[in-house]
Design goal:
Elements (H helix, E strand, L loop, with lengths): L3 E7 L7 H9 L5 E5 L9 H9 L5 E4 L9 H13 L3 E4 L4 E2 L3 H34 L12 H12 L4 H8 L3 H10 L4
Parallel strand pairs: 1-2, 1-3, 3-4
Antiparallel strand pairs: 4-5
Helix pairs in contact: 6-7
Length: 188
């Protein structure tokens, strides 16, 4: 008897699986496997692996949304092939994809490609934003301990014979922070 096997995932531990699990249960899934605090980009998703291992011929693996299964088109296609090789199907509730039909298989490939394109565009925008911020002297993460003038002055003083410990005390930073800052600026 073909079964509907559900899979739900959230990326962080503070997110809640209830909405996904409820939707999967309403779709008739039993069992439902869940991963919490696991990125879709990660290969090691224990519950997902178990869900795939549970799928048999005629079964359908059902997810709430396409990105719950994978973060790349290549990986989606590989997973779809694993299911096809088992004689099983894939269904996404949100995107209304059901690979048991020819049209569902076609839509699956198109939406997978669109999802990957969207992620690549977001990545490109993020990288462009980080580069623009760096050009303005702003960097992600904690604020820099030393500004560029302090780094140049410290490098000049070091070349004049000052010790690392003296300079570190003067600029109120760790010696390693001072060394790294000067090296990163190309002043050593």
């Amino acid at each position: 008897m073909p079964r509907k096997i559900g899979y739900a995932r959230v990326s962080t531990l503070d997110q809640n699986l209830d909405m996904q699990v409820n939707a999967l249960r309403q779709a008739g899934c039993d069992p439902v496997f869940t991963d919490s605090g696991t990125s879709g980009a990660e290969i090691d998703r224990p519950a997902f692996t178990l869900a795939l291992d549970t799928v048999c011929e005629g079964d359908t693996l059902i997810i709430w949304r396409l990105d719950r299964m994978s973060r790349s088109l290549k990986h989606l296609m590989e997973l779809n092939q694993v299911l096809t090789d088992k004689g099983a199907y894939f269904e996404s509730l949100t995107e209304k994809i059901d690979t048991s039909t020819a049209m569902g298989e076609f839509v699956f490939h198109i939406l997978g490609a669109v999802a990957q394109l969207e992620r690549e565009i977001i990545r490109e925008r993020t990288m462009a934003g980080l580069a623009a911020a760096a050009d303005r002297g702003s960097y992600p993460g904690r604020p820099r301990k030393l500004n560029s003038d302090q780094i140049r002055n410290a490098a000049r003083e070091k070349r004049r014979g000052e010790s690392w410990s003296t300079l570190a005390r003067r600029y109120e930073v760790n010696q390693e922070t001072l060394r790294r800052s000067i090296a990163d600026a190309g002043l050593v």
